Amino acid sequence: MPGYDTHTRTLRFGEQDLRVRSLVDVQQYADPDGHAERAGISSAQWSLFGHVWPAGQLLAQAMAIEQVAGKRILELGCGLGLASLVLRQRGADITASDHHPLAEVFLAYNAALNDLQSVPFRTLQWDTPNPTLGDFDLIIGSDILYERDHARQVADLLTRHARASSQVLIADPGRGNSAGFTRALKAQGFASSETRDRLDPDDIPPFRGRLLRYRRD
């Protein structure tokens, strides 16, 4: 990737290995064509999409064993798209989405790196309706509730794109915005449950990682 330092490592999710190219650190920033300004992304946040984050790994591990046959799946704020790549490995009907201009580039590279067919990608801003996106049986995301407004934005998006019978699965590192999100989804008829898991090898019970599950039948 011109202008960026990257490295490639192998991660294991379920029974499958996944090779992933990511940025070497959060200082990576090159935007000669002004994509950041047009997308409304600050230089401090620009590189965040391009890292392997603990919540992203937690979601990818969940997708390695999730029942996905016959489901149309959407990943929100995919970043590097670990979960989408795992689902592609499993032959699932997955669409990845993000609003970062480089997310699609890294996702396509990592799919090719693993000899996978490309993952369908949509540029998506949560607060902007997109009637061409369609609806989904399962909508997933990792660490997408990191600002207070995001809980409302994602909940509103679900009213547009979650099927009447659907599931939502969010891997959350415990930033404190999930309670409002859960209330919003309960108002939409979703039942909720939560399980805890490690975010890193040093994490001890009660683990910081949360898998937030919502189901509407």
Automatic annotation (TrEMBL):
SUPFAM superfamilies: S-adenosyl-L-methionine-dependent methyltransferases. The keyword Ribosomal protein does not apply. GO terms for molecular function: methyltransferase activity. It comes from the Bacteria. Gene3D superfamilies: Vaccinia Virus protein VP39. Keywords: Methyltransferase, S-adenosyl-L-methionine, Transferase. InterPro entries: Methyltransf_16, SAM-dependent_MTases_sf. GO terms for biological process: methylation. Transmembrane segments: none annotated. Pfam families: Methyltransf_16. Belongs to the methyltransferase superfamily. METTL23 family. This is Methyltransferase domain-containing protein.
